[in-house]
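dumping these here so i dont lose them again. two proteins, back to back, each one seq then structure tokens. dont judge the mess
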Amino acid sequence: MRLPRLFVFAALLPAAALAQPGVDANRPTDRPWPDSLVGGTAPPADVQRLYAVAAAVDADRIEADVRRLAGFGTRHTLSDTVSDTRGIGAARRWIRAEFERISAACGGCLEVVEQRRVVTGERRIPEPVEVVNVLAIQRGTSDPDRYVVMSGDIDSRASDALDATSDAPGANDNASGMAGAIEAARVLSQYEFPGTIVYAGLSGEEQGLFGGQIMAETARAEGWRIEAVLNNDMIGNSCGIDGVCDNTSARVFSEATRPTETEQEARLRRFTGGEVDGPSRNLARAIDRLADQYVRNLDVMMVYRLDRFGRGGHHTPFTNVGYPGVRIMETHEHYDRQHQDLRTEAYPDGTPRHYGDTVEYVDFDYAAKLTALNAVALAAFAGAPAPPSGVTIEGAVRPSTTLRWERPDAAENPQLAGFRVNWRLTTSPQWERSVFVPDNGEAEQHYTLGNVVIDNYLFGVSSVAADGSESPVVFPGAIGAFDYAPGE
């Protein structure tokens, strides 16, 4: 995989850049993707099947799955693996059976596989333990080596991170996320997509993010092109310890830049921008727009942080090796229901205070809403063409800005209709304006924004399918590339 080309400065530019005619590129828009015309008609602004995907998510099925997972008593990584009714072994066998049942219903459309590794000598895994992930893979029809991933965690824990025997039902943390991944598989297995979707049950999260590390390292070793990792960890609690009950918002945590960024790339970023435009951040922006458009009564709070303050989640092992990843979760947490032994104590006024992560505190309608957000995002990204590669930008000391990019492979992306050149003020959280540029069939493509000064805005390019499905926006250079691999 080639390292994307970096920014081209004025001294290296040709004498003039050709502009595409036909649209006022400075026109503000009143919706995410305007139907601008640039030598052709843009695809529809709405992808109709994404409304159907969101509506198909069933809160009752999610509730049944959460209750089933919580019913295993504990799913601690070090718990029983032999019993059919208690412990992590029983839980992961049940998850595998559910994925296989879904696959049978769609004619074998899912490959159900396990990833196994023995972990030992760790602070929370002192003795040898086999950490097992359960994956259901829905292969893409034309670009099967491009992956989008939704993950939930299989394991749970009590107050003591090494307590593998006490009850730890983990109803919200994280049976809700695991049930969401299973439900997304039920819904999306009724469709076909050009790209591959992975529904992942990851283990060992509470002991040190080992399941995610195993999957991420395996993916890198096997050359997976992972476009997006959506880590779902606690998506069912709508009433927080802060006293706020809110079932209309969700948080999406995203890292600003890659931790694999080189010293040269960091130096370039000082002079060209991109501090908030790594691929994980632009993945979060795309999810935010999808929520606004397709999921009723759900607003995404983009949090500019890898995870909660000083804490971690299973998207981190993926971002550690260069893959774009975000954490999707509830807005208002309740800490009495996280990592707590089951017990009842009393507030100072004598009111009972419940501790422990039990089923009665899960809001299943809310969990369904966040699952719908995931399902819509998976369908949108797997249905869209691959993000553009080799994105570069030119325009220093000029009155216009030119972006160049490489066309995704035609055989792998038959749905490709064109691209969007996007730009926004440097202080804006979301992409504000865009121009649709039809695919011209050439390997290298470009577009010039006349009278849009490079100094005043941030820019990026996304790929668009004929039905309107759209990739996340790619910021120019290695800073924003979705196909970047460390050391290449």
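---- next one ----
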Amino acid sequence: MSEPREADLRVRAAALDAADRLAAKRKEFVLDDSVYLDGNSLGALPANVAGRVADVVTREWGRLRIRSWEESGWWTAPERVGERIAPLVGAAPGQVVVSDSTSVNVFKAVVAAVRMAQSDSPARDEVVVDATTFPTDGYVAESAARLTGCRLVPAAPADVPGLLGPRTAAVLLNHADYQSGRLHDLPGLTAAVHAAGAYVVWDLCHTAGALPVALDEHGVDLAVGCTYKYLNGGPGSPAYLYVRRDLQSRFDSPLPGWNSHTDPFGMRPDYEPAADVVRGRVGTPDILSLLALEAALDVWDGVSLDDVRAKSLALTDFFLECVAAYVPEGRVESVTPAAHAERGSQIALRCPDAREVMLRLVAAGVVGDFRAPDVLRFGFTPLYVSFADAERAARVLGEILGGSGELASEGARDT
């Protein structure tokens, strides 16, 4: 790598950062001198969260105690926080509730989708699942299929339209592939599922907060997502469930808890679900993490998702350009699609010694993650990742893989 080329990339990074419409958001997060490119696993801490959690613990729990269920709004927090998430996934009010984990919500959504489909037509006995999905989604889909007497049909998302038919009940798809970062065609696949008379469940874990989703616009039936990645809700923060308004009266949850009852404090032995999205709840909400998430969502105030998407694509484009400039030819291969329409907000690079390389990157202050067997994964969170971060990450990767510098020499000695 020539010094003039390196200088040029640094100058360009500085110019891009100076023109960045989201640059001011960076100061709203707790960051250090490292380059943090693992927000697609765990988002950085928004600076206002610690104070909010301290208040919840010391005042709401410590002093008000049980009174906080009403006086501090604890009881209605799942719906209130859901309303904060709704604009980030393109949903009108009254369709998102924050409750439980992603896995639990996937189970509720898939079973409910099958039950609706079989109510329409008892012959529908197939559940199609993204064959490349995150493992939990596959496990849950298989269990949901057994529970509802269905056959599980794994398929690559691109092949799904050709597999749909009168026996299809539900289809579970990931909006973006967790490993490669490939973005799937939500509008087109949703339309194909509906044309077959089935119901679709979308997993938005790797897209919500990274790009516009538009659930209402595209008529999505059900959707789930975590809140600890691009939404920065904190480790293990509760997930959300979207139920399209016209389907809420038909949403038959396989987990009918007291929190989803129309009269939860009536303590009746018979179950009568709430009339709206509240029926997506199950048990007592996890208040501490739920209210930490609520505070974390403040960073989205005034943010345009179009700006977020534009920066995400610009960041990943620039990172790939820097990788091509800094990393010796043949050492890595991008498995993330080059086409913008097919790219989420991460770059995955195939590298034969990926595990060791990632350990070296982290030691050098560039934090990404490793996915077996040979993938380096870098998540670009537009609210706090800069173009200077992208340039530095690629430059350090080049040094580790033999481009130049002390790290490359150290690597040569170790091998």
